[in-house]
Structure formats: structure tokens, C-alpha cells
User: Fold this.
Amino acid sequence: MRPATFWLAAVVVGAAFFGLSLQVPNQYYFQAGYVVLQYIVLATAWNILGGYTGYVNFGTAAFFALGAYSTVALYKLLPLPLPVLVMIGGGVSGVVGFGMGYLTLRLRGAFFSIATLALAVVMQTLITNWEFVGGSRGAYILRPAQVPLLGNYIIYLFLVMLVLSVLAIGIARSIERSRLGFGFAAIRDDEQAAEAAGVPTLRLKLAATTLSGALMGMAGAPLPYYVTYLDPASGFNLAYAVNSIAMPLIGGMTSWVGPLIGALFLGTVQQLATVTISSALNLLIVGLLLVAFVVIAPNGIVGLFNAFLASIRERGLRKHWKRAGGDAVRRESPR
Amino acid sequence: MGVSLDLLLGAVVAGVLLGGFYAAVSVGIAISFGMLDIVNIAHPAFIILGSYAAYIVNSSFGLDPVVTAIVMLPVFFVLGAAVYEIYYAVFERRGDEALRGLAFFFGLLFIVEVALILVFGVDYRFVEARYIGPTLHYGPIDLPLRMLVPFAVSILLMAGLQLYLSRTFTGRAIMAVSQDRLALQLMSASPAKIKRIAFGISIATAALAGAFLIIIQPVEPSIGRDYIGRVFAITVLGGLGSFPGMLAAAVLLGVVESITATFYGPSWSPAVAFGVLLLTLAFRPSGIMGRR
Amino acid sequence: MGRRLLHAMNRWLAATIFAASLAPVTAGAAEPIKIGFGMALTGGLAGNGKAALVAMQIWAEEMNAKGGLLGRPVQLVYYDDQTNPAQVPGIYTKLLDVDKVDLVISGYGTNLQAPAMPVIMPRGMVFIGLFGLAVNDQFHYDRFFQIQPNGENAKISSIEGFFAAAMTAKPTPKTVAIVGADAEYPKVATEGAREIVQKLGLKIVYDRSYPPTTVDYTPIVRAIQATGPDVVYLASYPPDSAGMVRAVHEVGLKTTVFGGGLIGLQFAALKQQLGEMLNGIICYDLYAPSPTMNFPGITEFLTKYQPRAKAEGADQLGFYLPPFAYAAMQVLGQAVETTKGLDQGKIAQYIHATTFKTVVGDIKFATNGEWAKARIIFVQYRGIAGNDLDQFKKPGVEVIVAPDEFRTGDVEAPYTDIRH
Assistant:
């Protein structure tokens, strides 16, 4: 599928989905849906660095919360429409992503991951001590109750996040099919060999961290409007880091489909669990799913699906062989 | 605030004691990550498990937490060996990347935390011991026994482990497996078995670290998450595969936290500590005494 | 024939009525009245959340045993918000749009109440907050009420009692050290403290905060000691309250008055743990067993609450949040019964206009929903011996030193001499 066709298809699917959503009579759908869509963006963003390039980022919270806090800072200075805030959030986190990429140029594997963890802690401490955005007191962001055309503000938030999801998925797929994506894959498979072959690994890594960070920042920018009260503890919540790793893992890390499926699956399960089982068991579900998938389905749901397809194809081929007198053919053909 | 010498001395001493505790908490990672390349992010959960074990025994029988931990060492060793068996069967044998193992341990972290919540609830737990409260005073220096006892036992633990690793056959095999698998196999020791023993030891140290933790502060199931960053930071800062390095890094972190808290405002301690780590990673990734 | 039939019918009728009157008066098979809320059952605030839930369940059961609300059984519908504000909007939207609850009440803590406001306000629901600081200052919602007795100017009125008491100590204090955790309540509290201290003309010699992940508090206490303050004001949450109190003893803090807003000292777990180390500390509290606070129903409530909380692993003493959670339900229940319906506007009007008699005394709400008159008390712990819990259940060890209307004793100073 050509890139332009894919983008068109994605926009059409997104629009249709939104149209259907508007038929749902209650607002709970939008509240819960916002969170799931947010995770689609986070998981896809994480996967650009983690799945395509092979660098595991533990500090999703840092980029996400930076996006949220740039919204808070701007809210206190001058009123801006949400899409502009999203762009700014993305810009800020992208710059930080670039900086982090530069700082961790020579780090591989677990060292890189630990550096991202350290970055998250430093960011959280800086924001906790920044009185202007409320620091540890937290900040109140009052959202307008109604929006023209759509009605309640939550529907607007839902729409913004839907647009971001389509954007993120489109970007992910474009990367996959581009030279950038091949470069990433080369780094993931064997970085030293890639360098030896002349792949500009440092530049590519910077591209990956910047892009990944920017998308996460964009996902975080609307958060203050969603929660109304934001403080560092909830902005930097461990759940964001864990989920953004777990969802691509469960869904499958090799393509754009994986994070989407993982986020839809795990995100929906978590939202449902919050309002049904609703207790410590919630966390248990994430833990068990993580362990189960990692043990049973190392390539995620996408991997399972591919394996399933492959086995069907094999069975189909075998039947074809048999009908065409396959045994005789096989005996005759040289080994 | 003027730099009073007494205050500085007090801060440094407090930092050293704290560092001893941090070393005990991190030594398990120094083994599992530093030597075996296993990113066991669930290690803090095992520490909390150790804290609760000490709590149960202490509140039912009044037994001293450190003694309880020593009694529990073999139990935790077996637990560690069992966890390694699962890890090996699923991941290492298949040759999968470290990420899957990481996710496995992440899941394990949550499972242990929730199990503790379901069994014990979310209230803070604490232990009683004769040395929680009294303080030794030597001029301007205060040595609260609550910090001194874990520090002393931690140093003993480090010394014991270092001796074991350098003097016994299994110990040296463990050092070897982190450096050269093939040589080890040629020595006719099975790498998997050696790694299992090493991982078992790593989890056994969690029992002691857990006892120290609940002596120093009240414990509830989710505080393990606060330690994930610290333990990896200390191990990396000290240099993978080096015990003395790890100890130095732990003490350094303790002193930095303590001095920042005393003179500049405690709010900045985490930023300073992890900022140091970031700089180290950027300019000297092999750490203070790293080999790689 | 007609007369005998009539006679028989009469007897049957009498028998039926008699039989019916013997049946226990329980809430009938009518539609239940659903009261919905999110509550912190896991995560950092779960200790209080679980305690509140027990209190609310006790109220619901008592209501149902008496015939329910408006003759309908009361049903509590609740979800765990995991102490995560991001969960709250979804939970309350589900409660109102999907579960179609009739009434709502808040979860515990400012962080978990504010996110619900944009969901509650457009639907015009009455919302009673279970402990939070100045939540309504941002929203100015006329159907919001706060059950924590902070008073209209919460920041000041919840703290001034401490300094009022501190200034009665001899020698009269001149310098103050202010310290608190990097978290919502301590930040607001220390701000209030700063204002009061400046108004009193005292000098601030130390003013810092610390991260909640601090392990060792002795460097902080030593730094405070180095400035030689007469009063040390601390605002903290349970883990750091314990850590700071321990550190104060290990360093041997010398000062005239020590205490402030140490959350956690009100709970059984910390009282047991710290025991004698509490002696001399002047701490913010909401209720202490004493002749001046013998409100109607409080002893009965505590007698029911304590064994049940123990069984469910919640705070065993129940002096902090539980009586107020119960009182909040009393207020809501009384409003519903008196207005004879579930009209939120009428309920809100009634609550604004009435003085309620609850297990925590008389409550009258101001226009912004806070208590018209603050009732934060400050107690000084005295004569605690050992770690036994029973000594706290009786008057004596917690001497109320402020405000005047509840006072049972004077401040003892300096702290250096009274501490253990």
C-alpha cells in the first residue's frame, strides 16, 4: 500500500470511528476511550525507539509529563487553543528527547535504559521544585464545560487524542517503510555491524529519541484538561512507563500494528477492571498478562497471529501437494 | 548557611551509614545485573518480601529482624534459584533479547506487590528491636543504632561475599561466568548451574536488605518502586562486576544525599544523585571501578 | 350468611395485620437508593480510604436496619481510584451515566476530589468532600461541601491553633523553623504557617522541604538544630512523620515547642510504633477522647467501628477520618429525608441552611461549603507509657491545648525537657 493510500485509509477509519462514537449516549465511553487512545499514542511512540531501534526507554513518564506541564505553564501565562498546546508539548519533549539522545550516544542496552530512568527522576525533581507550575502542590486547570458543535468538552479531548493516534500510527508506518526504518532495523539487529557497514547510527538514534519523545509529549499535553488537577506524583506515575513497555510487548514490537493492538487490549482491560473488579487485583492483571505473554508469546499478539497464518498456509500447501500427487513429486525431486 | 564543621561532619557520617544500607540493597543487583547480565527489576519486590518476613516473625515471636533474615537466607536462596530456573527455561535457552526478561521481571514485581497487598493490606508495618531508638554520641557525631546496626551487618555481608567470590571454587566460577562462558565450560563447570547459584545468592541478600529496610523505616508494599532507580544507579555508578566499586558508589550516593539535604534543601537530593549518575553514564560509562 | 362471612373476613384481616406488624421493619423490596463514589483502596492514601469505607458501610447498614432512606434500601456503589487522579473522571462518569447512581460523595484527599468536579458540576450533583484543602476555592461551586472542619479560610484556620498554643509557652518563642514534605497538604500548610508567623512578628530561621522518598531524616533535623529555633513546625504525611519524629529523638532536638501538622500521628499504627516518642509533641488533630468532645453518638460509633476495622485491616482507632465520613453520610441522609426526595438543588439548599447534629458535633456550613467555624484541635501528647493502644482510647494522654472551647490543659514547655 502506498504511503498516501495508507494515510487516507487511516483518516477515513478514524473519522468513521468518531462518527460511530458520537452515537454512544453516555459520556463514560469518552472518558475511558480517551485513556485508551492516549495509550495507543504512547505505545506507538515507545515502539519507535524500543521496537524498531531496540533501545528500551524506561523514562516515558518524563516526556509525557513534560508535555503535560508545558500545558500547565502556558495555561498560567496566556490562553491557547488545545491543538497549539499539543504542538508545543511535542516540541518541548522532542527537544528533551534530542538532548537525551545526545547525552546517551555511547550507551548500549541496559545502560541506556538506566539513563532514561535517571532522566525521569531528574525531571520529576525539577518540576516538583518549580513553584510556577505549582510544584508539589499541584496545579488546577479549569476546562470549559462545553465546546461548540461537539457538546461536552470531553468529546473534544477524545477527538484530539483520536487525531493524535492516527498521526502516530501513520508516522510509525511511514518510518517502517522508509530508509529511516531500515536504518533502525539495522541498529536493532547488530549495531556494530551496522556502523561498520556505514549506517549513520548516531544520527538515526537521535532521530528516534527525538521523534519518540515528541510523540509522547503530544500525548501528555491534553492531560491537565482531562484530570483538572495535576501534581508531579500523578504526572510521573509509574503506570505510564510500565504500560508503554507492556503494550508493545503484548501486541508485538516489529510493526505499527503491535502497539495498536496491545494498547487496545491492555488499555480496555484496565479500564474495565477499574470499574468492575476494582481493587488491588487490577495491578495483578497487568503483572500476570505481562508474564504470560512474555513467556508464551514472545512476539506478541501479532506474532501469534502470524504464526497462526503460517500454520494455515502450511496446511493448505500440504493439501495441495497431496492432491497433486505430492508424495510422488517429493520422492522424485532431489534433496 | 555557613558551613559549620560539626554539621558537615555529622552529614558525612550520616551519609556513610546510609550508604552502607544502600550497598546491602544494591548488592543483589551487583550480582544479577553486574555479573550475570540479568536485569532483575523485581529485586526491590524481593526486598520488601524480606521486610514482611522479618515483620511477621518479629510481631509473632519478637525475634530480632536481622536474626530472622539470617534464618531466612536459605529460603530466599531457594526462591532465587527457582526464579532463575523459570527465567533460564523461558529466556536464556531460547537466546531471546534482554527485553523479554525485563518484562518478565516487571510482571513479577507487580505480582509480588499485589500479593503482599492482598495478604497484609496497605498499612505501614514496622518492627521492634532494642537498637531502634538509642543513639551513640561522640562529640558532634551522632550514631543512631537504627542506622549503625544495618551498616555494620551490611559491611560484614560485603566482606563475606567478597571472600566467597574470591576464595571458593563456586565463587570464582561465578566471577568467571560473567567474563568468559567458554572458559568456564572448559573448566567443566556448567554455566547454568553456576548462574543459578549466583542468582540464588542475589535474592538471598534481599532477605537481609529487607530486614535492614524495615528497621530503618516503616514499610508498605509499594515502596519497592522508590528503590528501583537507586539500586541500578548505584550498581552502574560503581562499575559492573566490581563489589568494592559498588560499595564506594553506595557510600557516595548516601553522602551526596545527606550533604544536599543538610545544606541545600532535601528536595534537590534525588536530582543531584541521579544527575551524578547521568553525567557518569555520559562521560565514564564504565563507572568508578568498572572493568568494561 | 352475610354476617358470618363478614365476621370471618374481619378475623382474617385482623390476623393478617397482626402478622404483618410482627415482621421486622426492614427496607422493602423497593428500588435501592444508590450512593456512588471512588475511594482510595490501594496506593498511598489507601490507609484512610479503607477506614472511611468501613465507616460508610456501618452507616449504610444502620440505615437499612431502620428502614432505609425514604423507605428504600441504601446501596453503596464504589470503585477503587488507586490514589491516581487520572482514574477519577472516568469513575464518576461511569457512576452517573452508566450505573445511574442517585447521589454521589467524594473520595479521600484533594487530589482525588478536584478531578471529579468537571464531571459533577454540569450535572448539578451535590458533592460532599471527604477531607481536602480549599478544593472549592477554584470552582466556587454552590453544591460542594467539605466535611473536614477546616473553616472558611482553610489555610489559616487549620494552623493558627498551633501557633496560638506555642506562643503561650515559656520562654516566649522568637524564632521558627518551618519544614514539610514535597506534597500537597504539607505545601499548603507550610504556606499558611509562613503567613501566620510573619503576622506574629516571629523570625523564620529555617524554611525547607524534603522529598517523600527520603530515607534518613537525621541530616534534616541536624540542619534545623544548627539554626537554633524556638519553635519547629512540621507538616508531613505518615511515613515522614514517623521518620522525622525518630530523627528528632536520635539527634536530640533542643527547642521550646515541636509539632504542627503531622498526619499519621492520629492513626493507631503510628501511635503504637512511636509510643513514648510522641510525648511533648503538639499535633493537629480532629478528635481526641475527652469530656469536651463527647458528641452524641461518637462513642457508639467508635465501639462499632474499632473491632470491624481491626478485622478488615484498617486504622484501628478511627479518630481521624472515620467519624467524619460517617458524619458526611449523616448530613446527606438527613438532607434527603427532610427534603423528601433526591432533588439535588433542594438538598444543597437544605444543607446550606441547616445546623446538623452529628457524631462529630454540630456542623454548620458556610457559603463556600467549608465549615462556618473551624474545628481543628491541637493536642499535646503527655505521659504516654509503652506502646499499648488502649491508653489512647481514654482521655488523658492527649491533652487538648487549642482552641479554647475544647481545651483540657495548658502547653508544657520546653520540648527538650518533656521529650522522652
User: Anything to note?
Assistant: The radius of gyration of chain B is 19 Å. The CA atoms of residues 124 and 220 of chain B lie 5 Å apart. The beta strands of chain B are 135-138, 141-144. The mean pLDDT of chain B is 84.
